[in-house]
Fold:
Amino acid sequence: AQSVTQLDSHVSVSEGTPVLLRCNYSSSYSPSLFWYVQHPNKGLQLLLKYTSAATLVKGINGFEAEFKKSETSFHLTKPSAHMSDAAEYFCTGSSASKIIFGSGTRLSIRP
Amino acid sequence: DAGVIQSPRHEVTEMGQEVTLRCKPISGHNSLFWYRQTMMRGLELLIYFNNNVPIDDSGMPEDRFSAKMPNASFSTLKIQPSEPRDSAVYFCASSLTAVGSGYEQYFGPGTRLTVT
Structure:
């Protein structure tokens, strides 16, 4: 069975400090993995995706994620948080004909 | 491209009324998705179409919900009769090709439905 688990429902960091949003997956197949961001009252927007090419994936707004097969993880990171990064973040996996969204992580940024 | 277009953006209706939400996917995309988002249940996939054919409708809550895709450029999600617990934001998304191919989804701005 496939699953995507976001380990934290809420993360709070200070502006200028690193961001780490954790995502674990399980899949019988090599999955495609995505991170989406949702700002308040907006639709979801793609941050980055992994599709079995480079394991370190760079996305928009300075975010990146590393696919670690041994740990079944696809954590999202950013070296320095900005106030505009405050949003909900979703990790998603797809393989075969199934797509699964994680439950989301709300990122808050303290001034 | 204008992106995924949803209408209406806001809908307020009374319990028992029929509600129809509309979606126009990005031109050239052959997969379309309907989602529902609430505080309690988060983001839920309701139904997924590929080449206008429903592939996975396991997320459709009950018989009151129905979705159609009569052609590649238009889809509807209908709720009949509506109930207060249907209040949510409904998102439509489209993708270049089928799930599992590695292509991302493009989301519309959503329709905020309130059933009183």
In short: The first strand of chain B starts at residue 5 and ends at 7. Chain B has no helices and eleven strands. The interface with chain A takes residues 4, 33, 42-43, 45, 48, 55-56, 91, 93, 98-102, 104-110 of chain B (CB under 8 Å). Chain B has a mean pLDDT of 94.
